[in-house]
Specification:
Blueprint lengths: L1 E9 L4 H18 L3 E8 L4 E8 L2 H10 L1 H4 L9 E9 L3
Antiparallel strand pairs: 1-3, 1-4, 2-3
């Protein structure tokens, strides 16, 4: 299983809308592509949304997710709420 930490800087004033769209669209779609959402957290005073995503074949599934008609059909794109996105694969300590 591969784990990825995703750390997003959400544009000021848009956290509620981001979390709502992420919960309604991004998370369920990721899960349909076989991903497991380990957890998601907000750091309100820093406008950050942090989540951990897992999959046995992460790169292949991620490519399929982004290439899918379902992801391309999300309008408006929920990513419009993000000022920055950083992703890191993690290894067990």
């Amino acid at each position: 299983m591969q784990f990825q930490l995703r750390d997003y800087q959400v544009k000021p004033g848009q956290m509620t809308e981001w979390v709502s769209e992420w919960s309604a669209h991004i998370r369920p779609l990721r899960e349909r592509f076989g991903f497991r959402v380990v957890g998601a957290w907000t750091i309100a005073d820093e406008h950050r949304f942090v989540w951990i995503l897992a999959h046995a074949d992460f790169e292949t599934a991620d490519r399929s997710y982004y290439d899918s008609a379902e992801r391309r059909a999300l309008e408006p794109d929920p990513a419009r709420h993000l000022a920055r996105a950083v992703q890191h694969f993690m290894e067990p300590a």
